[in-house]
UniProtKB/TrEMBL annotation, chains A, B:
It comes from Sphingobium soli. The active site is at D52. GO terms for molecular function: tRNA pseudouridine(38-40) synthase activity. The keyword tRNA processing applies. Belongs to the tRNA pseudouridine synthase TruA family. Formation of pseudouridine at positions 38, 39 and 40 in the anticodon stem and loop of transfer RNAs. This is tRNA pseudouridine synthase A. It catalyses: uridine(38/39/40) in tRNA = pseudouridine(38/39/40) in tRNA.
């Protein structure tokens, strides 16, 4: 049965998250329902990552096995038409090898976390960025962030619901960039723990506000204790950016 | 009575436009109702420009005369708190001279028009950009746009409802910039006719699609006839960017 890979953009605001849930709409269900409408098949899609409620995707990668004889471009167009008006769009679709797996073949994931550092309430971006009213020192955040880069036990930055076998992860990149009143925090790793990016961002915000020093952040990491967490950032500002494959 | 000047950001999607309307919500009414709630006064606000339904504002300038003895910062904070959850925010507020008028003192207005040049449906940006599926040649649009810069009779690019006395306007800038699948068209003038930016953008899109040449655009301008208009772009992508004062 042909395997199709999808690149998916979605606005996470109306969803309970990527994964299908009994109690509310999900990105997975939106796409699977559209595939079923187009093909008559109950295909299951697998994604590179499972995002939480309110988290967004710029180019999530996913795959599904579909028996119907249909060209990838027509499949993409038909799924997109069926998903309206849900804010989910297939940006690209192609056939891949039978052993290519969106989750298990993935060797790199990157996220961006967006902050609006301003006093005024949000208009266009409500639910799409984290508004932080206190002035943030992005240079201090960038310097502190480098303490988290590398291989560490990230227990402090891990949700109690995290299902990973080990809290050991290698963080390849954590960069803080300011443009005007916007701050973007770029994170990349082979994989992340549940809530890891939001927990790291929350603690970087503590540093940016001057409530924590870079050493406080390092101490929190070394505590290997969720109780040492300074702050967990809300889902609003988090975007799954990219999945990479060999 | 002290005169307060406001810098206003608004998401135009839920509004009938800037100006107060009997048949639906407006930005003006949202702000005036908040001022009334804060001050107990039926203040009237005047803006640098009146935007149509669905058009957005990044930094609209407006003013109102308010008798209440209140500092500008506190006034701004109180108005913002009262306007929630409407997507309108006062970004700045200060007292100005009695003869300063947001509309009549304004000597320059600029707009940006945003296009998403892509096949996939919109997610985050639905209602915030114009999606154009056909590939657009931004270089051709930029070259053609220069035919419109300068002093002209813009009758072709003027709505039938335009209330301006004369169709003669001086367009100071019309620049087309592409970044990835996004195209931004920057327009600046002392003032614009009703629908002028959207009409110019629509015709530039005709050029970008290859359906019009730059000469066709020049001919449309010289026709001085609304019937010569190629296309009127939708309000979705239009943003009032800035008002300038001496």
């Amino acid at each position: 049965m042909p395997r199709f890979a999808f690149t998916v953009e979605f606005d996470g605001r109306p969803f309970m998250g990527w994964q299908r849930q009994a109690h509310g709409p999900s990105v997975q269900q939106t796409i699977e329902d559209a595939i079923a409408a187009v093909t008559g098949e109950a295909a299951v899609i697998h994604a590179a990552g499972r995002t939480d409620a309110g988290v967004h995707g710029l180019a999530m990668r996913a795959h599904a096995d579909i028996a119907k004889d249909i060209a990838s471009f027509r499949l993409m167009e038909a799924i997109n038409a069926r998903m309206r008006p849900a804010p989910v769009a297939i940006l690209a679709c192609e056939t891949v090898a039978d052993d290519w797996h969106a989750r298990f073949s993935c060797t790199g994931r990157s996220y961006v976390y967006r902050i609006a550092n301003r006093r005024a309430p949000l208009t266009f971006d409500a639910g799409l960025v984290w508004r932080v009213v206190q002035p943030l020192d992005a240079d201090a955040m960038q310097a502190a962030a480098q303490h988290l880069v590398g291989s560490h036990d990230f227990t402090t930055f891990r949700s109690a619901h995290c299902q990973a076998h080990s809290p050991l992860k290698t963080l390849d990149r954590l960069d803080v960039e300011r443009q005007g009143d916007r701050i973007a925090i770029h994170a990349a790793a082979r994989s992340f723990l549940h809530h890891q990016v939001r927990s790291m961002v929350g603690c970087l915000a503590m540093v940016g506000m001057g409530r924590w020093t870079a050493n406080d952040l390092r101490d929190a990491l070394e505590a290997k204790d969720r109780a040492a967490l300074g702050l967990n950032a809300p889902p609003d500002g988090l975007y799954f950016v990219r999945a990479t494959y060999p």
